[in-house]
Amino acid sequence: AKEIGSLSEREIFLIGVALYWAEGYKRVMKRNGRELTCHAVSLTNSDPSLAQCFMRFLQEVCKVSKERIRADIRIYEHLNEEKLIEFWSRALHLKREQFGKTYYGVSKSSKSKRPFNILPYGTIQIRVNSTDLFHRIIGWIEGVKREVEK
Question: How far apart are CA 29 and CA 39, in angstroms?
Fold first, then answer.
């Protein structure tokens, strides 16, 4: 941990791009068989530190105001919704009003892969409704891909 030191804006930039490349929603959205021209920036994860890092990326690198950031949580039935919203609100410094719907249950892709108690905070989806930012981030990912494929 000591070897890391403080992170520069460039390092937060690269970490944020890598996080989105790995965990962000990148598929072209379709409705009624047609590709949509609008697309939100959306990242879902269960790790509070990873979520905090992505928040820094959005605010410090992408210059997204905290007020524009929205969040949804997915939790198991046995977890307390209000306590988890409070937890994520404190962890990410978001107001209660910035949280949308709470989803219950495990996603289809996670069924039978994890014990029910492995995600004590559920998962958080961090979202910014910005098609321009989505395309910028996808472009940054393409730039990283070109550099690593050299």
Answer: 7
Residue 112: pLDDT over 60: no
Cα–Cα nearest to 29, from 19, 41, 17, 13: 41
pLDDT > 90 fraction of the chain, expressed in percent and rounded: 71
Which pLDDT score is estimated for 97? 96
Determine the residue type at 36. Answer: L
**C-alpha span between 55 and 44 (Å, rounded):** 12
Q: Where are the beta strands (DSSP E) in the chain?
A: 30-31, 34-35, 41-45, 69-75, 99-104, 123-128
Residue 13's contacts (CB-CB under 8 Å, 6 or more residues apart) are: 57, 61, 140
**For residue 31, what pLDDT band results from cuts at 50, 70 and 90?**
confident
